[in-house]
Structures are given as C-alpha cells and as structure tokens.
Amino acid sequence: MSAAASPALLEVKGLTKHFVLHADIFSKLAGEKAQVLKAVDGIDFQVKRGETLGLVGESGCGKSTTARLVTRLMEPTSGEVRLGGEDLLSFPPARMKDVRKQVQLVFQDPYSSLNPRKTIMHILGRPMEIHRLAASWAERRERVLELLRRVGLGVEHIDRYPHEFSGGQRQRIAIARALSVGPELVIGDEPVSALDVSIQAQILNLFRDLQEEFGLTYLFIAHDLSVVRHISDRVAVMYVGKIVETGPAAALFAEPLHPYTKALLAAVPEADPEKPPPRLTLKGEVSTPIDPPPGCRLCGRCPLETKICAEVAPPLVDVGNGRQVACHNI
C-alpha cells in the first residue's frame, strides 16, 4: 500500500468552490447582499502513485464537494487539478471523456448509485461499450464475469438486478463498475459509511486487495477515523472548507498537531476503560461556511486560540517529517 518516493499522480492547488446564496425578495427589499457559501476554500494536496490518501472531517466540511471537483462532476470556482501533470480543468468535454477512464468514483450509497432497472451485465458492461474497450457483446460479458470474480461475486449474479443484492454486494458491484474501464485513480466518497460494521471490514479489505493487484491510487473520503486509519498511507484533515493538517497516517494518529485533529481523535470511543479521558474538546457547534470570518475557521471553538487567530487565517505549512499543519499556535 505504500508509495515511497513515487511521483504525484494527482495534484490539487488552490481548489475553490463558492456558492452564491441569493437572498429572497424580502431580504433584497431590505438591502441585504447575497451570501457566499465557501464549500471548498483554497485547498492543496497531492496523491502519489500507488498510495492511499485519506480525506477526513465532519459532515459538511467539503469532502464530497472536493471529490466532485476533482472528477469535474462539478466545476470549481478557481484552482488547479492536475492528473499526471496535465491540467484537467483546461480539457474540453471530448477530452474529459478519455479522462473518465483514468479517474473513477465510488459513491457512498450503493442503494441509489446503481440503476434499479438494469441488470448487472448492463451496469458493468455499459462503460466498456462507451469507451470501446471490448470488440463484441461476448467479450464484454466475459470481462464482466472476470470483474465479478475479482470482487467476490459469481457467474450466477450477472443477470440479476440491484434489488436482489445486499448492501455489501451492491458496493462490490459499484467497485467493479469503477474498475471496468481500467482507472489509475479511484475516489471513494464515503464508500463504506452506509454499510454494517462487519461488512465495512470486508469492503475495506477488498479495496486493499484490488490496490495491490491493479496498482491503484486511492483518494479515500470518510468521516470515520477508524476507517481512514486502516486503509490510508497519508491523511488530510478537513474542517469547513479548509485542510488543517496532513501527514503520514501513523504519525498523525500517534501525535496529532492541530487542535481540531486532536478533538476528532479524542471523540473516538476508547476500548480500554482504564485509559484516561481525552484532554482536548471543542466548544460550541461546527462553524458555518457561509461568509466565514477572515481568521481561523476554528475560532470560537478552539481552547488554544489567541488574538491573531480571529484576524489571520493560518496557512498550511511544513513542520517536518512529511507533515503540514495550519495553526498559529503549533
């Protein structure tokens, strides 16, 4: 699963997505200006070939929006997305069709991401047909059967419909669909959060096995730290549209630096009853991404904040050993 010194496959710089929230007629009559929701606000990260980067944070922090921006299912407000050194945001639609073969997305909900009116043969074979990866129907069917085998399903499943499968089986089908076009990068957008815990472990093991077999690169999005911990080489922690800390998974979990990362880890239930309670907790509710103040997004919640925190947003800076953190008080 490690990727040592391999070059970056995916590079994201200054990626931004702002939504203008238009005021209703009464607000307009009162002279109120439109508000801006800063879903993703100038984030930077890299994913090296063959590695897994875990992107973690609370619901609503911008993780899924990031996935859609990287795949251009949603157009960014500004920033750069480079795949193998090429700027994806400059590609016309015809060129993006080829890129779809290189970057695939596995969605969160296996119940809604598969067309209930199509058989598994159609669901897995259609991408091959679109991208002309098989010369005939017979060849497509053979390749679909091979994909099913690789994700732990059998020949008896090929002519069934999605409603005939369990949640874990549906997610296996979704993974097979992502693999059907031979991608380099697979983005998992909370791909196990809708599954039972016992099934989650099976799907995570499948992800790891497929990565070793096909040399895949993963951007793995989750809010569950235990999931990210066991599948990721590196972790990026996101809070209200900003990445606040990145680093090797083992180091980040052993010694978190940012107050938000510490609070996230402190909130994880501890199996050892004799272990002392967490020392750092945050006060208040999650900050809003609508017209946020100029300083740190954690202001008002952080026990370490000082005057500068409310005035200046801390940049993400290198602190050594492959780690970066955005905090004035580190």
- As residue ranges, the low-confidence spans are 1-5
Shape: globular
Characterize the biggest β-sheet: 8 strands, mixed
State the share of residues found in helices, binned by percent: 25-40%
Task: Write the topology of this structure.
Layout: E1 8-21, H1 25-29, E2 35-48, E3 52-56, H2 63-70, E4 78-83, E5 86-87, H3 93-102, E6 103-106, H4 120-130, H5 137-150, H6 167-179, E7 185-189, H7 197-214, E8 217-222, H8 225-231, E9 234-239, E10 242-248, H9 249-254, H10 259-266, H11 307-311, E11 317-320, E12 323-325
Parallel strand pairs: 3-8, 3-9, 6-7, 7-8
Antiparallel strand pairs: 1-2, 1-4, 4-5, 9-10, 10-12, 11-12
Helix pairs in contact: 4-5, 5-6, 6-7
Please give a structural write-up.
- The chain is an alpha/beta fold.
- 32% of the residues lie in helices and 23% in strands.
- It is built from 11 helices and 12 strands.
- It has an 8-stranded mixed beta sheet, with helices on both faces. A 4-stranded antiparallel beta sheet has the order 2-1-4-5.
- A hairpin with a 2-residue loop joins strand 9 and strand 10.
- Helix 6 packs parallel to helix 7.
- The longest helix is centred in the middle third of the chain and has 18 residues.
- The radius of gyration is 21 Å and the shape is globular.
- The chain starts with 7 loop residues before the first strand and ends in a 5-residue tail after the last strand.
